[in-house]
Amino acid sequence: MGTRAESNSFHRTLAYITVLAQCFALLPVRGIAAPDAEALRFRWLSLRVAYTAAVLLALLFMAFFCARHLLEEGGSFQDAHSHCIIFLPSECVIFYGIAIATYVLFVRMAARWPDLGAQWRAVEHAQRCYGPAKRLRLRVLCVAGVLLAGALVEHLLNEFSNFQAAGGSFRCYLLRSHRHLFHYVAFTPLLAAFATAAGALATFSWSFMDLFLAVVSMALAARFRLLNRHLLTAKGKYVPEAFWSQAREHYASLVALTDSLNDCVSSLVLLSFGSNLYFICLQLFNSLKSLQHWYERLYFYWSFSFLLLRTVAMSLSVAEIYEESRSPRSVLYAVPTPCYGAEASRFLQMMCSCDVALTGLNFFKVTRSMLLTMAGTIVTYEVVLVQFSHSDAQAHVTTTASTTTEFLM
After folding, report:
1. CB within 8 Å of 248: residues ≥ 6 apart
2. What is the per-residue pLDDT for 406?
3. pTM above 0.85, yes or no
4. DSSP string, 55-81
């Protein structure tokens, strides 16, 4: 049982995800592949942090030329090829800005990751009587596989769309995709490879942010689910006071773990929801324009569908913590009157007074209703876009008719 529990621990379950993150210079923590969370260490003077710093400098280098290009050409979201990701100056600045913020927040979280891993390990050890979380690793790997495969296909379709729009010339494709850089710096194959790698790293960090939030939320929700399963065995039964005392203490430790996790990832939650909402609105804006070629339509439909899927998957995974933390209420409401003592009362009072959920830097709690709020915002934005589109079309028709009348007269 002990070996099985260790293999299904939070540290071991996320090992594949964290190793992949470090390949792309995210979460620079030592000991992520070790058998136990005790090996986790973070040091500012380390090769991992140096690798992350190098990637950050590369992204800052690209963002600098994007900002310079934006200041000289002005910010606009209207372009015949605005469905391509890193092309317009305004989109370019926001895209690299989000990537830079993601890397900075992951470094900040890496400094706290060893303490979080130790606390999570202590909770798992104290609650080992509930057994391991079944199929958690399989669920994590399935979610990671789907989201990473979808992100890879999206990136390749975007590059293919840019390549076709450039007339099939590799050099023209690179000049077009990174015109904000080569407008100021002479084109060289080495610099082109550098810009392509920076774009790929920025794209990965954007998708990995949602994946990371989803899998850590799934792991924490699984801990609450194990406690809930244990409580369901006592629903409506006569159990001693010590049962409720132990359950309340375990629930309190999970609440404290949620608070610690929230301190680490709340900034990422805010950045994730903000960036996803921005790109969804941007894609809706681009949907008002006609797409000339099949590869443009293929990329647009895939990109928009995958963005919605990723946002919904991340949101529901994070909201699962809140839902699972509220589940014990039904058990406590069914406690027989002779057994409803001080411990059961304290447990119910704790549950009703605590909102156990991840937050976006304490601006909002992530619950399922949050997804409906986002959907309402997006629908409102689309309605406004459609109204402005019809107004522009009518204005264009009126102007054309007036010009024709004046010409005939």
Report:
1. 343, 346, 347, 350
2. 46
3. yes
4. HHHHHHHHHHHHHHHHHHH------TT
